[in-house]
Amino acid sequence: MKPVPQEPRRDHMFLNMGPSHPAMHGIIQIHLELDGETIVGSQVEIGYLHRGFEKTCENRTYTQVIPYTDRLNYVSPLINEVGFCLAVEKLFGLNVTRRCQYIRVLMSEISRITDHLTCIGASAMELGAVSAFLYLIKARETLYDLIEEVSGARVMPNYIRVGGLKSDLPEGFEERTRFAMGEVRSVLDETHRLLTRNRIFVDRLSGLGVISAEDAVSHGFTGPCLRSTGIGYDVRQAEPYLVYDRLDFDVPVGETGDNYDRYLVRMEEMKQSLRIIEQCLAQMPQGPYQVDLDGREMTPSEVIEGMKAKPPLQPIRQARIRLSPDLEGTEKRSVQDVVADDKTVVFPPKEDTYGNIEGLMQHFKLVMYGHGIRPPRGEVYQAVEGGNGELGFYLVSDGTDLPYRLRCRGPCFHLMSGLSTMIEGETVADVVPTFGSINMIGGELDR
Amino acid sequence: MGLMEGLDNSVVTGRLDSALGWARKFSLFNLPFVTACCGMEYMSVQGAHYDMDRFGAAFPRFSPRQSDLLMVVGTISLKMAPVLVKVYQQMCEPKWVVSFGVCTISGGFYDNYCTLMGIDRVIPVDMYIPGCPPRPEMVLDGLQKLQEKIQRSPHPLTSGERHRDSPDSSHRA
Amino acid sequence: MSSSPTPELLDKLAERLGPHLLRRDAFRGEATVVVAPQAWLETCRFLKEDPELAFGLLVDLTVVDLQALGGSPRFELVAHLYSIRKRHRIRLKTPVPEDQAQVPSLTPLWKNANWLEREAWDMFGVRFLGHPELRRILLYPEFEGHPLRRDYPLRKRQPLVAERDVEEPRSMVSEPVRYPVDPRFKTFGV
To answer: In 3-state terms, what secondary structure has residue A122?
Structure first.
């Protein structure tokens, strides 16, 4: 790869950083033009993790795309899944249940915290603060335990489905989440004590990697990097999706657009995410637990009337089929509160699949090739607030069960396009904290 | 022929082999060639919860000249393959390669125009750790199996058998 | 929640474009405007600089290949714009024919257009006139072809390093499959 063709000056040195470099997160190559130790020009080469997400997804059904979206921003996978499923649901014009929306917000915020923990941990480690890395990874483990309880896998949960979720939250999730939040809070406090006023950390971060607000917008920055320059654009507040309009949270905004501001914005965002999680746990509707024989939710007055009847009406519907434990998560009590009321999109609970012909047909129509989830023809763009900014999914559907074109707008792509601007004029050693503060995630960057 | 050719598998060379194997397996300097999502589990394994330091493989040495265990973590695209081969060739012997995650074993579920379907198409691999991503316990299990392999592998000092990549080695992994 | 600009603003845009406006769509609360390729740069400039529209953020720029839908012209260049101040979005499209796949570049207006257009060139082969250095970004220069085009096979690899032969995993089913298999099953190596 040659740098931009100009007559190279004889006294400048050309240095190649990466792609196999400890601080380049494995997949970025930066060609630096150095005057001594100062960077006078740079060129960033990406694409070393291009995995063909968009082309592959043209050959997968909508549910099969979900594991691929997991691996886009692999530190906050649930946010990607939510974004994609919201896009498909927008095409359908489908609304999911309130409980499902709260759970999606809860899981998104847990993912956002893991994203910021990893970012700050990795960038602290690259500066030599290995203890901070170990503490933050320990906090991340508690969150991974939560995600594993809910979905079965630590890192790639594959939990969100079009029209709802894979299954409801397990029993006792609320206490364990509160415990995990306590752990995360104490780790964040420790990290603050270690890093925020640490002379070395502040010296290495503040005043460097500066980008002005106009440049940031021109480069398409969104997320913490844009907010560190002073522009308070957050998709959760500008275009609220799911239940963010019912939740009360602040969006931290920096001032100078340097690395230190980005660090502070991320630390504060984690606190706000914890706040959101607490509100979700408090506000989450418990879902109908009393349904009558037709499966309709009973109002309390109906329950009372039913109780007065002789013989008393059974308020809780009993499952007619006894299922084996292997189908955990697919029984009626695990899914009825969190899936939308649309037979063409969601799977029936297993009791119905094996129990009656309507359930069997519903299952069949969703599983067989050529059938499946078939949104109407059209195109939508759905933006969600990812860990790094506006994560957008542009989905073009031709009415079949495979997406015609699925485009992921990864925020890192735009952040990296601004990296050259940010490192110009600094020394080689400053590339490391600057690059770390952008939180480049390869899956999102190269797709 | 080796140093102890006259002694041929005697007790002395046997003990020396084990001693060398023991020393090598508990002082692995890994080069984490991290590209993608498996890096998250790699970080977890390095962290305090599922400590890799207990097994002696704590210190990542990011230079191929200083490391002996190449852990290829994450999908290798066709654009990255030459870089991987170059890094592998820059390592000194003895060296071992761990293929971490299904993307490095066989391409994972990225069967398309830009993914290398398994790093064993371009470099020899000693240990395959499947999973997408593998749980940290699986990684530690794989690491222990690799350590057993290192323990029992012949050493040029005692047996005359060269490491597999040397000019006159007759087999290729 | 609709993120589309108000109808008055869309009418203002339509008036400004005149005959270059090919189509206007609204679907699920989103506004789409299709313009002729000659007016591409001017439309984007107007959308960015007009104080009422104020679309300062180029969110995304991509191409859709309509070949499998029988669309003509073959490509459609799609840009998503967002206004942070006004909180509205718009989708701007322009048809790009296959034989003359070139459009003016948006690099004078937005800096991230540089990389976005390089990606569109890399994946689809659409040229951008006036781009400072239009070369591949996600793939390597030795790669031939444009992979996201519909006629590029998914599995056609162009390796850089010589690969040794690895036996493809053979099916462990001893009897031949008798029921008619959907050709799309091949995606799973069955």
So the answer is: helix
**Alpha-carbon distance A234 to A252, whole Å?**
10
Q: Tell me which residue range forms the domain holding C11.
A: 7-152
In a domain, B1, yes or no: no
ipTM: 0.85
pLDDT tens, A111-127? 999 999 999 999 998 88
Maximum Cα interatomic distance, chain A, rounded to a whole number of Å: 99
For A419-430, what is each residue's pLDDT tens digit?
998 988 899 888
Q: How does residue A325 score in pLDDT terms, banded at 50, 70 and 90?
A: low
In CATH, what number is assigned to the domain containing residue B45? 3.40.50.12280
Which chains would you list as touching A if contact means 3+ CB atom pairs under 8 Å? B, C
Give the number of other Cβ atoms within 10 Å of residue C12's Cβ: 16
Q: Do A46 and C137 touch (CB under 8 A)?
A: yes
Question: How many Cβ atoms from other residues are within 10 Å of residue A221's Cβ?
Answer: 31
No. of H helices and E strands in chain A? 19, 8
The residue ranking higher by pLDDT, A334 or A357, is: A357
What is the rounded average pLDDT of the residues A410-433? 90
Alpha-carbon span C149 to C67, nearest angstrom: 8
In a domain, C23, yes or no: yes
Exposure of A246 in the CB half-sphere (CA atoms within 13 A): 15
A383 contact residues in C (CB cutoff 8 A) = 59
CATH of the domain at C12: 3.30.460.80
**Chain A residue nearest residue B115, CA to CA:** A51
* Residue of B125 and A292 predicted with greater confidence: B125
Residue C186 falls inside a structural domain: no
Angle between helices B38-46 and B136-152 (to 10 degrees): 70
Please state the domain count of chain B. 1
Q: Which amino acid is at C21?
A: L
For chain B, which chains pass the contact test of at least 3 CB pairs under 8 Å? A, C
Spatial contact of A126 and A94, defined as CB atoms under 8 Å apart: no
Residue B98: inside a domain:
yes
**Residues of chain C where predicted confidence (pLDDT) is lower than 70:** 1-2, 166-190
Dihedral of alpha carbons A229, A233, A237, A240, sign: negative
Under an 8 A CB cutoff, do B62 and A22 touch?
yes
Q: Cα separation of B98 and B69, whole Å?
A: 7
In A, minimum Cα distance to B88 occurs at A20
pLDDT in tens, B38-63: 999 999 998 888 888 888 888 888 88
- Predicted pLDDT at A305: 59
In a domain? residue B137: yes
Q: pTM score > 0.90 for this model? A: no
Domain assignment present for residue C1? The answer is: no
Number of domains in chain C: 1
| Of the partner residues A67, A138, A155, the one whose CB lies closest to the CB of residue B133 | A155
SS (H, E, C) chain C: CCCCCCHHHHHHHHHHHHHHEEEEEEECCEEEEEECHHHHHHHHHHHHHCCCCCCCEEEEEEEEECHHHCCCCCEEEEEEEEECCCCEEEEEEEEECCCCCEEECCCCCCCCHHHHHHHHHHHHCCEEECCCCCCCCCCCCCCCCCCCCCCCCCCCCCCCCCCCCCCCCCCCCCCCCCCCCCHHHHHHCC
| C20, part of any domain | yes
Q: What is the DSSP letter of A30?
A: E
Q: What are phi and psi of C62, to 5 degrees?
A: -150, 180
Kindly state whether residue B156 falls inside one of the protein's structural domains.
no
How sure is the predictor about B160, in pLDDT bands with cuts at 50, 70 and 90? low
Q: Give me the domain span that covers residue B32.
A: 17-150
Mean pLDDT of chain A: 85
Assess contact for B109 and A59: CB atoms under 8 A: no
